[in-house]
Design brief:
This is Glyoxalase domain-containing protein 5. By secondary structure, the protein is mainly beta. It is built from two helices and 13 strands; from the N terminus they run ββββββαββββαβββ. A four-stranded mixed β-sheet has the order 6-9-8-7, covered by helices on one side. A four-stranded mixed β-sheet has the order 10-13-12-11, with no helix packed on it. Strands 1-2-5 form a three-stranded antiparallel β-sheet, with no helix packed on it. The longest helix has 10 residues.
């Protein structure tokens, strides 16, 4: 019997390993809900609520700060031991310099692998004017999309590391 995440697992056959093929199989198990962890309660549902921050791995922190502050209106702040974050709304983006990531970090920190959507309160025609004035290429849009809350319109640009940045407006 093993307690794992508030469940009791009783297994007839524990593990069978085939080291030549690198496979691992588990025998038949019965699972029972049980109060085996003192701080777990059957009446408590554990689930996430919102995003506090994400981490972008970037080639050049100064260049990323310039883009996200000048183009998207975020605020750059230094925190901890010389770390950088971009604040907007109630969230932030922490910046990690490629090759100098803070632990723990993503399994394979890579520049340009993020596709992120930011919500704005300003109509996209104003954004189109701003982006044109700043000579930022709009890759696509405005186009209709399905957001987390409702239908929205979006446009797409790239940051200095080629991450796809979606700017979305709920009308």
């Amino acid at each position: 019997m093993q307690c794992l995440f508030g469940f009791d697992y009783t297994c007839k056959k524990i593990f069978k390993s085939n080291s030549l093929k690198g496979t691992l199989s588990v025998g038949s198990c019965t699972v029972r809900k049980r109060q085996c962890c003192p701080d777990m309660s059957e009446n408590v549902e554990c689930k996430v609520e919102s995003i506090d921050h994400i981490v972008l791995t970037v080639a050049n922190i100064d260049r990323s700060i310039t883009f996200y502050t000048n183009i998207l209106g975020m605020t750059a702040k230094v925190f901890g031991d010389g770390r950088y974050a971009l604040h907007f709304g109630t969230q932030k983006i922490n910046l990690h310099q490629i090759g100098h990531e803070f632990m723990p970090h993503a399994f394979k920190p890579t520049c340009g692998s993020v596709d992120i959507c930011f919500v704005t309160k300003q109509p996209l025609d104003l954004w189109m004017d701003k982006l044109k004035a700043l000579r930022v290429t709009v890759e696509e849009g405005p186009v209709p999309r399905t957001g987390a809350l409702a239908p929205m319109n979006s446009l797409y640009i790239r940051d200095p590391d080629n991450n796809l940045v979606e700017i979305a407006y709920y009308s």
